[in-house]
Amino acid sequence: MFNYRYRRVVLRALRWLMVMYARLTGRRFHCGALAGAVRDGIFVNSDMTVSCNCQDIDGTGQLGDLRTTPFEAIFAGPAAERLRRELAAGRLPIDRCAACFHLRMALPAEAETQVAAFDLPRGLSVENTVQCNLRCLSCCRRQILQTRGSRRSMSLDDFEIVGATLARLDAEYC
To answer: Which residues touch 118 (CB under 8 Å, ≥6 apart)?
Structure first.
């Protein structure tokens, strides 16, 4: 629990610093994962929710549910669009953005054009389970288990949905 709280404090401070720097320099933000420019930036979680980052511990990066909505609609949907718009406005919509590998600073015009001009990713990362018996010091397992609810592992039906999604994306990476 301490690790989770510490991480939140550090990410919030880093987020504030980055937003202030962007304001002072007249820059905005762009996310390679939300632009579809990277093959490993979008995650299908064990409960079949889709997240925009690899450490969506608290669910703030969730874009939609793959069980009820096709991936293409999720990626073009309101949650993803809201994140892209906030980035283009010079704000980091979630704390995790501050430490994301796919975040880039951009000029305002470039950031704004990338709100609507995105590609579908050519790959997805898949979290097939959150049930882990290791006790890594850096892991926020308790919070992740709360976020995933009762869906802690994917079923065979879930894998079929993920497989069909990867085929439609003509994925190069999983």
So the answer is: 34, 35, 36, 75, 76, 84
